[in-house]
Amino acid sequence: MGTTMLYRFEDYVLDTDRRELYRGTALVPLTPQAFDLLEYLIRNHDRVLGRDDLVAAIWEGRSVSDAALSTRINAVRSAIGDNGERQSLIKTIPRKGIRFVGAVREEQQAQALQTANAAMERSTDAIRRLAQRIRFCVSRDGTRIAYATCGAGPPLVLVAHFMGHLTVEWDSPVWGPWIDMLACRHTLIRYDGRGCGLSDRERVQISLDRAVEDLEAVIEAAEAANFILLGITSGGAIAMTYAAQHPERITHLILYGAYTRGRIARATTPEQREDAQLQIKAVRVGWAQDNPAFRQLYTSLWIPDATAEQARAFNEQIRVSTTPENATKLMKMAFGFDLRDAATRVRCPTLVLHVRDDAVAPFEEGRMLAGLIRGARFVQFESRNHLLLENEPAFVQLVQEIKASTDADC
Question: How far apart are CA 78 and CA 84, in angstroms?
Answer without folding.
Answer: 9
